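Figure S7 source data.
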Amino acid sequence: MSDQVWEGGCLCGAVRFRARGAPTNATLCHCQSCRRASGAPFVAWVSFPRAGFGLIRGEPARFRSSPPVERSFCARCGTPLTYAHDAEPESLDVVTVSLDRAGELAPRDHTWTSHALPWVRALDVLPRHPERRGKGG
Ligand SMILES: [Zn+2]
Ligand SMILES: [Zn+2]
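Tokens for the predicted zinc ion complex:
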């Protein structure tokens, strides 16, 4: 499965990227940081091997949303793109809907539901985790 190739980019097209490898940990994150970084009530993420991720065009802006976390986004149009945690150097989280074939990457669960907005709860039929999901999901 490591020969999988996924491409994506931001809304304006200034940043394009390619991710190689099998996507894992498809989730909807409700944490406050993701909500504010995206301007959305929750964010769909999927993880790829960090070594298989590369830029095709442009260079995203980066900032630390907390000491161990670096997020990237398009500085021109604002699309959030990636999340990198220093404690997980092998893995890079990519905003699912920035991928061209996002429809193939259905979320498997919800994470950080302890931060979730009350009005999204009624939509939920997936397993729930009060904070992060354990390994292996
Ligand atoms: Zn852009
Ligand atoms: Zn989050």
